[in-house]
Every structure is written in structure tokens, then in C-alpha cells.
UniProtKB/TrEMBL annotation:
Superkingdom of origin: Eukaryota
GO molecular function, one term: zinc ion binding
Protein name: SWIM-type domain-containing protein
Keyword field contains Zinc-finger: yes
Domain SWIM-type span(s) in chain numbering: 35-72
Record's keyword annotation contains rRNA processing: no
Alphabetic keyword roster: Metal-binding, Zinc, Zinc-finger
Alphabetical list of InterPro entries matching this protein: Znf_SWIM
PANTHER family (alphabetical): ATP-DEPENDENT DNA HELICASE, PHD-TYPE DOMAIN-CONTAINING PROTEIN
Length: 227
């Protein structure tokens, strides 16, 4: 039959009594039978049993057996214990507080090898080998830079290398015998008194009158920017 909720009545001493209503398996619309069993607490021995059905008068029937099966399954499956998530902080006891911070480039963002294909593992090994190869590349020494500077002092790379910037700037300009300067830059045309003039008057009075480039300045600019 279908066993309903089992009730436990503790008795003084070492004995217990369990009471249960069991619905008949064939006549489901009939009134459920009431079965009860007397048990020992420590050993689980059956002292006596009874059921309100006809066979239960002899203390042995399928309803009593169903009650005992349910009690045994309840104990075997540990259904009476509280789940780990119902207890306070039990599910989080494995959390560790000794984790030390690390830089991102030192953290391997890869999955465990379990379940990976050979192609994926080969790609990971290739990346690791490439990183080890890059770490073995020696840095450019001063002897190599000196040799390159002797061959090509005006190379653009020396304009950003410490120790060669000034030499590159000096070698990049060709001094004229007349010591001609470069043309004036645009910020040399600024005068504070012109700030009060209208735009049309300012263009006429200042820009075209002061923006003059001589032939010597043109020749020197061409030589300075050659190559």
C-alpha cells in the first residue's frame, strides 16, 4: 500500500512505537489502515506489530511490512539529517584566506589538460615555447649601437636612443658658411597689440608684411632637410 507520514512515540526505557496510516493497494478509496510497530531503540528489534486490516490481527501483514520498509529506507538514506546548505556556513568552509595576489601575466589562464584535444595541447606547448624563446633574445648592447652609429649616424633610430640624440641633431643640420638661420616660425609673428584688431585688418597689416623668406633661407632650409 501507500504509506503516509510515519509518527514516532518515544516510550520510557529503550522501546519506541511507530504509528502509520497505510492506504490499501487495491481499494484506494477505502479508509486507510492503521499499522503500528513496537521497536527497540538500540538494536532495532521488532517487539510486536499490529494493523487494523484483517491480516493485521495476526501481527503480520503487508501494511506492517510497508511501514518497516519506510523506516529502514529513512535510516539508510539518512533522510533525517539536515542538508549541508541548510547549516550555517558549512558549504563555505573550504574557502581559503591565504590566497596571495599575483600579476596578470603570471596567472595561467588555461583549463586543466583533462578533456583537451591533441591540437589544443600542441597549441599551448607552442605558445609556451615561443615565450621561452622570446625571453632568451639578448638585448641590444652599446657596442652594436656604436657600430651602427658609425656607419649611419643620421639614421632615424638614433633620434630616440639615449646617448645618440644630440649627435643625431648636430649631424642632421648642415651649417652654412654665412651662418644663415632658418625662416621664422609662425609664433614669431605674434604681437599683443594685434589682439584688438579685427580679423580682416589683422591679416592685411601683419601676416603679409612680416611673412618674408629670403633666398638664402630657402637654400639653407633645402640643405637642412635633404635626405
Amino acid at each position: 500500500g501507500w504509506v503516509h507520514t510515519v509518527w514516532l512515540f518515544p516510550i520510557s526505557g529503550t522501546n519506541n512505537c511507530t504509528l502509520k496510516k497505510v492506504r490499501p493497494s487495491q481499494r484506494t478509496n477505502d479508509k486507510p489502515h492503521e499499522a503500528w510497530v513496537g521497536l527497540k531503540k538500540d538494536a532495532g528489534d521488532i517487539i510486536t506489530a499490529h494493523c487494523s486490516c484483517m491480516a493485521g490481527l495476526g501481527e503480520t501483514c503487508s501494511h506492517v511490512a510497508a511501514l518497516l520498509f519506510k523506516v529502514e529506507a529513512f535510516h539508510r538514506l539518512e533522510l533525517g539529517k539536515a542538508s549541508c546548505t541548510s547549516l550555517p556556513c558549512v558549504w563555505n568552509q573550504a574557502f581559503t584566506k591565504q590566497t596571495k595576489p599575483s600579476r596578470a601575466h603570471n596567472i595561467p589562464f588555461i583549463k586543466p589538460k583533462h578533456g583537451k584535444s591533441e591540437a589544443t595541447l600542441a597549441e599551448e606547448r607552442r605558445i609556451v615555447n615561443r615565450r621561452s624563446f622570446e625571453s632568451e633574445i639578448p638585448k641590444v648592447g652599446k657596442n652594436l649601437l656604436d657600430a651602427l652609429h658609425t656607419c649611419m649616424a643620421n639614421s632615424a633610430v638614433f633620434s630616440v636612443v639615449n646617448g645618440y640624440v644630440e649627435d643625431t641633431a648636430i649631424n642632421g643640420f648642415i651649417t652654412d658658411e654665412h651662418d644663415v638661420n632658418l625662416p621664422k616660425q609662425l609664433f614669431d609673428l605674434y604681437q599683443h597689440c594685434h589682439s584688438e584688431l579685427p580679423e580682416s585688418r589683422l591679416l592685411v597689416d601683419t601676416t603679409f608684411s612680416k611673412l618674408k623668406v629670403t633666398q638664402l633661407e630657402c637654400d639653407f632650409l633645402e640643405k637642412s632637410t635633404r635626405n
